[in-house]
Design a protein that fits this description.
The complex is a heterodimer of chains A (288) and B (255). Chain A is mainly α and 288 residues long. Helices cover 68% and strands 2% of the residues of chain A. Chain A is flat, with a radius of gyration of 30 Å. By secondary structure, chain B is of the alpha/beta class. Chain B has 7 helices and 9 strands. Classes of the chains: A mainly alpha (288), B alpha/beta (255). The structure holds adenosine-5'-triphosphate and magnesium ion.
């Protein structure tokens, strides 16, 4: 054993650091300047609530002092009152129930179908050749443009609304899923084959878990598209639904109700994205 | 079980990769294959394990595989090929799950191979928490779990730093001393070849042909990093490979 650098072996056997050579008096010395700062933004937890409160305060003050016309933008307190009315009259429940039902049915069916078709495209030459060009052609159409067609096909009731959402979440799921499968590390598949794993086992235990991050990412995109389409669909011939409520408020120039409705939509979006984050944290916990 | 390669020729479209290779991998021996980059070593190994089909010639399993072998031809990959979402024991159970073994049999095999590769303390750990050398030991444990007849290894140590490589070479040697496994071991590293190979096969530049077969009689356990005899063999191998490598290098640059 030889001693590591910068230590000397003393007779007692204890390693001691070699003393640094003192710098001569007349030689100029300066510390090496630090140049590595910046380019690493951090989330400061106390800033978001402050910004929120500040914004609300300015907004409220502007309304009280007549700087902001109540017709253009009602005061936060008025929005709060409108929201409370919405809750207390029981209408929030009616609207939310209608919206959530459409959203959940459309999104869940669209996501499941999209994943299945994506897996088929990812695994089978025939499905890939048949569906991929079709998907490529239909994906870029803004699905809102198809809403009138769906109304003709499925009627002005629930059918057309659910179909729009289903359609809108189907395509991003297809693309995300087969993209995820295309990106599966081929060496892992080789490994599975080399251990004589069956095709089904390779798909279930190697391919799908590998593609899961991409699939969850697709769900995130599909969810935000679904909410957009939900509101759009509810603006045509719906009695209940957050979209209908917002549209009606707009027609009545009731901006306080309108903004209350928009806030409900924002919450809805946040909750959906939080749920997907939860799923990611659960299924992808091996990552961190 | 021996593995016999007969007049093997392989082509990708119009690219000749291997030409007329005839070679036996005898039971209980480690055959190392060295050759310049791109000469078809990895291709040869894929053909050996049935992951690809040869253009011409054949590969034969001679004799019965050991009783109870779940996967006679088993690979150990350069990049470990561990599933990041399964723990160490999960990665091993992956290759046992399709064989109608009982839960306790699978558990027994897992703890057995983990003990043999000194990994028992890491059964519940995910691959990302392990160093490169440990990951490769997990891959070795996984390969041992299926009781292979022949281990097919494609540069299994080349993703590792040289200290780790040295330690794992010792592991492989002691493993061989205990289990006398059969292996085809591909490497760039001539030192690995002379430390682990009972027989070293030198391939020519592409299209790969057998240029020389060198048998090394010194028992594996008596081979040390600084043995003069092995040094001479290594130099001799390097002389053979040098011109092939130089020409191959120019060839690749032309392509
Ligand atoms: N699937 C494939 N299709 C077409 N060409 C291939 C394929 N696999 C390998 N090749 C070509 O065959 C030749 C031999 O490749 P191979 O990977 O077997 O070489 P190697 O000896 O393992 O090289 P290295 O030492 O760099 O690992 C290379 O020129 C490579 O480009
Ligand atoms: Mg190779």
């Amino acid at each position: 054993m030889h001693s590591p650098d910068r230590t000397v072996q003393t007779p007692t056997g204890v390693a001691e650091p070699i003393p640094l050579r003192p710098v001569a008096k007349d030689v100029e010395t300066r510390r090496v300047p630090f140049r590595g700062a910046g380019f690493s933004p951090k989330a400061l937890w106390y800033v978001p609530p402050l910004v929120f409160l500040l914004l609300l305060a300015v907004w409220e003050a502007g309304s009280r002092f007549g700087l902001i016309s109540p017709l253009v933008l009602p005061a936060p307190s008025e929005v709060l009152t409108a929201f409370r009315n919405l809750v207390e009259s029981g209408m929030l429940y009616n609207h939310l129930a209608a919206s959530l039902q459409r959203l959940v049915i459309g999104f869940v069916c669209g996501t499941i179908l999209g994943t299945v078709v994506g897996v088929l495209i990812g695994l089978y030459s025939l499905a890939r050749s048949a569906f991929r060009p079709l998907v490529a052609a239909i994906f870029p159409i803004p699905k809102i443009a198809l809403l009138p067609l769906f109304i003709i096909w499925f009627g002005i009731g629930e059918g057309s609304k659910v179909a729009t959402i289903l359609f809108g979440s189907f395509f991003p799921m297809v693309i995300a899923t087969y993209g995820g499968i295309d990106a599966v590390d081929r060496s892992l598949i080789r490994m599975g084959q080399s251990f004589n794993m069956s095709r089904a086992a390779i798909i279930r235990k190697i391919v799908l878990p590998s593609a899961l991050p991409a699939i969850l990412n697709g769900m995130r995109i599909a969810a935000s598209i679904s909410i957009i389409l939900l509101v759009a669909a509810e603006m045509i011939g719906a009695e209940y639904g957050i979209g209908a409520y917002v549209l009606l408020a707009g027609n009545l120039m009731a901006t306080d109700q309108l903004i209350a409705g928009v806030i409900v939509l924002s919450m809805l979006g946040l909750i959906v994205s939080w749920l997907i984050s939860l799923a990611e944290r659960h299924f992808l916990r091996w990552r961190n | 079980m021996d593995l016999e390669i007969r007049n093997l020729t392989h082509r990708y479209d119009d690219l000749d990769v291997l030409r007329d290779v005839t070679l036996t991998i005898p039971s209980g021996q480690i055959v190392c294959i060295v050759g310049p980059s791109g000469c078809g070593k990895s291709t040869l190994l894929r053909l050996l394990g049935g992951l690809e089909q040869p253009t011409q010639g054949e590969i034969l399993e001679v004799g019965a595989p050991p009783k109870g072998s779940l996967n006679p031809l088993t690979y150990i990959f350069q990049d470990f090929a561990l599933l990041p979402w399964r723990t160490v024991s999960g990665n091993i159970s992956l290759v046992l799950e399709g064989h109608q073994l009982g839960k306790s049999e699978i558990q027994g095999r897992i703890s057995d191979v983990l003990a043999r590769t000194r990994l028992s303390d890491f059964a519940g750990v995910y691959p990302r928490q392990l160093s490169g050398g440990m990951k490769q030991r997990v891959a070795i444990a996984r390969a041992l779990a299926v009781d292979p007849a022949v281990l097919l290894m494609d540069e299994p140590l080349s993703a590792l730093d040289s200290q780790t490589r040295e330690l794992l070479m010792d592991d492989l040697v002691s493993l061989w001393e205990r289990e006398r496994f059969t292996a085809c071991y591909i490497t760039h590293n001539l030192n690995e070849a002379v430390r682990l190979g009972h027989r070293v096969v030198v391939l020519s530049r592409r299209p790969g042909e057998i240029r020389e077969i060198v048998d090394i009689d010194t028992p594996l356990s008596e081979r040390s990093a600084d043995s003069a005899h092995l040094g001479r063999i290594q130099t001799q191998l390097w002389e053979m490979m040098r011109e092939e490598a130089l020409t191959a290098d120019r060839q690749l640059n032309d392509a």
